[in-house]
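Key idea: predict the complex, not the pieces.
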Amino acid sequence: MKTINVGLIGFGTVGSGLAEVLLSQQERLLQRSGLTVRLARVADIMISELPARFADTELTNDAEGMINDPDIDIIVELIGGIQPAKTFVMDAIAAGKHVVTANKALLSQEGKEIFAAAAAKGVEVGFEASVGGGIPVIKSLKEGLVANKILSIMGIMNGTANYILTRMTDEGIAFADVLKDAQELGFAEADPTYDIEGIDTAHKLAILMTMAYGMNITHDEIATEGISQIEPMDIEFAREFGCRIKLLAISRNHDDNVEARVHPTMVPESHLLSSINGAYNAIHFTGDTVGNVLLYGPGAGKLPTGSAVAADVVDIARDIAAGSVGRVPSLSYLPGEIRDIAITPMEKLSCPWYFRISAKDEPGVLAAIAGILSRHGISIESVIQKGRQQSGPVSIVISTHTAQESSVLAALTEIDALEVVSLPTVKIRMLDETASFED
Amino acid sequence: MKTINVGLIGFGTVGSGLAEVLLSQQERLLQRSGLTVRLARVADIMISELPARFADTELTNDAEGMINDPDIDIIVELIGGIQPAKTFVMDAIAAGKHVVTANKALLSQEGKEIFAAAAAKGVEVGFEASVGGGIPVIKSLKEGLVANKILSIMGIMNGTANYILTRMTDEGIAFADVLKDAQELGFAEADPTYDIEGIDTAHKLAILMTMAYGMNITHDEIATEGISQIEPMDIEFAREFGCRIKLLAISRNHDDNVEARVHPTMVPESHLLSSINGAYNAIHFTGDTVGNVLLYGPGAGKLPTGSAVAADVVDIARDIAAGSVGRVPSLSYLPGEIRDIAITPMEKLSCPWYFRISAKDEPGVLAAIAGILSRHGISIESVIQKGRQQSGPVSIVISTHTAQESSVLAALTEIDALEVVSLPTVKIRMLDETASFED
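Result:
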């Protein structure tokens, strides 16, 4: 019976979650793998002792010493952020250690260097927990869907943003109020920028695209728009169009170029992604052989994330025991098969649109707006003009048929320059199911 | 570059789907595994030649000859049914061949013998396509959720039954009419018994339970009830209770005993399983560390099933190439760890209930019914008594709080014996989210 020794860097929420999972599941993992997966050591400079139940685990403040200890087989990095996480990961690889990390910021920014170093050294890098929390999305993409050309990726990949949108939808309250409440309840961080502005979602989409298409991409190549500008009335109008607003990551594969974008999206209620509520995540793949697959589960949290990290640890432990390290390439394609693919320019994208125009309540306004849209080749699907208010601008809400982004931007520039239009027009993309390879 | 030679038995819908997938994905599989996965030979006695694009594949009518050919590495059995499929699978194992099959009837009935033979011979048996079509559910359960005690399994695992229920729900038409239409459209077989009576779903639940809990179980140990008795008015009443009727497989883990049942279930609209429509499947697991995970996708079909079979083939090919055969136990637990666990007797189960009682429209009827329920400790949640009809019995529809099955059976026996009750009472179990470990 072989023992695999794990060294963990970072005993915060996720790190302590992994420790709990490895402890509570040790017997089960032995029954399922024939291996004892042991949390041998924890490196953390913020704590002075581990809870008594981790009596078999040593605490150290010397991460580098642990990285270089020949008794440690796998280094798990769970401190997050770019530095010193990157140094620890690169040093672990240099020391010939397999690495498991949940660090999506690090992988989406520095992944190319990290995976190249790991391939050169012949060690594995596991990162199941970096996307979709406890959902086995990385393994499904790498192995379960191996016999597929991935045609599209769509997902709700940030639990905080989805929690906020869900409460705005259910309770009709403003973004800022839900955010404040979420922060008090611990569902949102003190600085929520990464979550609400779509940056965290872009990190995750970059990781999925790398594996789905076998391409080089960093998160800053992804057009990213957050949810902080969404107002309760947009959610209400969405409902009138039979849609819910979700922060989606979307990528479509056009072979010689691929779309990559994160933005609030009006999702038809008939689409399963519209039913993903609260802090849950869901990732939807369309493959050329499998068709549509959706994977749903907790996008974050101590034990769910611990479950995903532990799955990576067991995967690597099995490879160590079987002598099959490198059996599945870390990025799903062999290192030599990963290539550069162009990102589709946003202005070339087409989808149906939602516009909310704030205009004076005067005769001829709608005619002027419709005229501008028409001149730009944008076809109106429906118009909602809400009952006149006592004073101030009225909302003219328009849904369009599929229109190219460049035309929309040009038309809205003209519309917003009209004297009767008092605020910049709110525009939200609608999910185009046809274009997303739905059947 | 290593070549793995696959021998396929059965070139029907799924078999030809696998052939298409291996052909269209050959280059991609090479890029992802470094291996050439080649469909070397097809054994089928019903066809005289293969389509021209399979020029690299030989056709034979001698399955046994192929099984015993030392050049063949993996035998894929896609003929379905118990015999001769079992003989081919056992002979392939005896010949030291790895086996991939989509045959849920075979595995849920003869699995113990097959897996024991495979373990003794040191060969792998892949069966991803046996549950959930193209959804990577087997791999997720075995590997992605390895660090979980599975607390419950719930799923929509038969596309035909779900297609029929979806159309009954959307269009308000009777079961028999939808079935006839589905047969004409090719969505249901000429003999649909396995699909509509829940037997196919029970096959799949038995396979999932074996892996989830590490237990011996055959499908005939699972209490199974189909959808042929569901009437449009039950679907309509379900809607009034905020529910949809789905054919669910349900298992809950009580440690020393486990529930195992397949039956029509009223699923609250707030639960994601209520939103799974058409021929799609979805499997929902609750794990003690991950929480709730749901996997959704096509439950059947030529290419989706081919995608899942191909994933198994690649998995085994990787193990052959890496010398790591047996790296993950076929049934997720090591053979020696699979034990007998008692099935919870149905009469001990508790859930909320839906009753539709057909009674004469007379004073005192509801009082008599309520009295009987009360004497059996069954607490009424709500009653719907539809407007009086011209003649004939009226429907008294009752939803209850959680009640034990044995009490319900005793109470309904008394109710159905009342002189004013004209037809046997229709009873449908409601999904008890608390009891199903939902959060």
